Structures are given as C-alpha cells and as structure tokens.
Amino acid sequence: MDAAVFLISAAIVLAGAGGVLVARNPVHAALFLVQTLFGVAVLFVLQDATFLAAVQVIVYAGAVVILFLFVIMLLGVDRAEDLGVEPIVGQRPVAAVVGASLLGMLLIALLVSVDGPTGAHGANAPLGDAADNTRRLGEALFTDYVFAVELTAILLTVAVIGAVVLARRVRGPLAPLPIVVVTSVADDGAQGDDGTPDVTGVTGGDDEGEGA
Amino acid sequence: MVVTTSWYLALAAVLFSMGAVGLLTRRNPLIMIMCVELMLNAVNLTFVSLGSELGDLGGQLSVFFVLVVAASEVVVGLAVIVAIMRRRQGATVDDLSVLRG
C-alpha cells in the first residue's frame, strides 16, 4: 500500500518536474510546478509530516505559484517560447552531463551513507506520530526555536519591503536610476507607458507634486 | 514491499538533478526560479525523510524554515524580474549580461 502510494506520487512528482523543464509556456510550467508540489505533499503525508503537507499545499501551491502566475500575467509573457534554438552552443549537452554527474554523485552519497555514520537517532526533539505532529512542531518552534522564528519574521518583512521598493514605478526626481538600458531597445514595440525616462518630463507632477 | 528512506532519498536526488538541469538550460528567468523551487522541494523531501528515519523533529523544523526562505526568495526574485521586464520586454537571462558593472 505504501509502496503503491509512493510510486504513484513519485511518478507525479517527476512528471511535473519534467513538465517544468520542457514547457514552452511559462503558465504551463507553473501548473506543472503545482503538480510537483502536490506530489511532494502526498509524500509528506506518507511520512506522517501532516502539518508540512498542509503548509506545502497552502504556501507553495496556494501562494508562491499564484504569485508566479500573477507576475506572468502582469508582464504579459504568457506566450510560447521557442525552445528549438540553443542560445549558447553546447549548453544543453554540457547541462545534461552536469545533471547526470550530479545525480550520480547524489545517489552515491545519499544511498551509501544513509545506514552509515548518520544512523544515530536524535535525542533532541522526538518525532511523534501523525496525530501529534502539529502540536509537537508548534511547541518546538515557539520554545526552542523562537529566536529563529522571530528572525524569519524579520526576513519576511524585509522581503516584502524590498519587493515593494524594487517593483515600484519610480517617477519624479529618482526616475533616471537604472534605465540606461532603454535606449537600446526602446524601438522594438513602442509599448512604453512603463517607466521610460521621458515619462517624468511628460507627466511630471501627477503623483507627489514634485515631478521633474 | 516496504518503502525505505532510500527510496525517498533517491527520488529527492532525481528531483534535485532535474531542477539543476532546468536551471542550466532554460533562459526564461521565471522558469529558472521555478527550477530553484524544484531543487528546494527535493531538499525538503530529504529533510523530512531523514527526520523520520532518525525519529527527530529537527528535519521537519528545517523544512519550515526552508519554506519561509523560499517564499521570501520568490518574492524578491519576482520583484527583480518585474523591474527588469518593465524596461526590456521579454528579456531573457542572456540579455541581462548588460548588467555587468
């Protein structure tokens, strides 16, 4: 029974990962990523990590992939990409060799050492059964690991502020920051209502009254 | 047939390698971040399976923190991509060599 569940969900995980690798359309890649994340969640359940399975579905599939899809839609890059051309000559064979050797080394390292020197059982925080999983995780997180939890709170705050600062559409005196690139590509589509430098000259003063 | 920890570790190794190959071959920065997510999931799977192998909660706690770091990495990475794409429509990572100092 366990073996059947494992094999089916492993097939789902690997098929999703392969889909991410070969999908031409970023939206399809995001959906394949959801498939992989759900498969991993099933594997978490199979190992009695029920809380992490729920978090995997909620945070990864529910938030991260939705964020991906929002960005894809926002940027309008949801069109098929030509995978036929190889941008750097020899990139794919080299990547295949690197991936195969990485896989070989990982398999050797993981499978040889699993019963070896790391076989000592932890005395730190014992793993309960599945029904107890969430309570034990919560207790450990908010007693022994409370400092790390606070640090992750700071990390998330910094990430949110950083994302706002990075993605903000700057007008006004700060406008001509890194936009030098535009001069070489501005003529390809003329779709620029986006922050090209002359925006400040044209519309300056609509936001905080100190444009231009 | 009993599912041992080795099965999970082998699956995680395959998943990690596929993510690495995707990171090396794809040019779309969005899909490259997705491949990083694949690799992080492989590591999470390793953490959980070794945690249950050793009867320790530490593996699952590590996965918790990896999740948080992955979420913030995605947020900042996507913000960078939005900021770049707004200036260059359809930019791939090859085009970003202009960023070299």
Please, could you describe this protein's structure?
The complex is a heterodimer of chains A (212) and B (101). Chain A is mostly helical and 212 residues long. Chain A is 63% helix and 0% strand. Chain A contains eight helices and no strands. Chain A has helices at 2-22, 26-46, 50-75, 91-113, 133-143, 146-167, 182-185, 198-203. In chain A, helix 2 packs antiparallel against helix 3 (50-75). The longest helix of chain A is centred in the first third of the chain and has 26 residues, at 50-75. Chain A is globular and about 55 Å long. Chain B is an all-alpha fold and 101 residues long. Chain B has a domain at 27-93: Helix Hairpins (Orthogonal Bundle). Helices cover 76% and strands 0% of the residues of chain B. Chain B has three helices and no strands. Chain B has helices at 5-25, 29-54, 58-87. In chain B, helix 1 (5-25) packs antiparallel against helix 2. The longest helix of chain B has 30 residues, at 58-87. The radius of gyration of chain B is 17 Å and the shape is elongated. Chain B starts with a helix and ends in a 14-residue tail after the last helix. In chain B, 53% of the residues are buried. At the A-B interface, helix 1, helix 2, helix 3, helix 4 and helix 5 of A face helix 1, helix 2 and helix 3 of B.
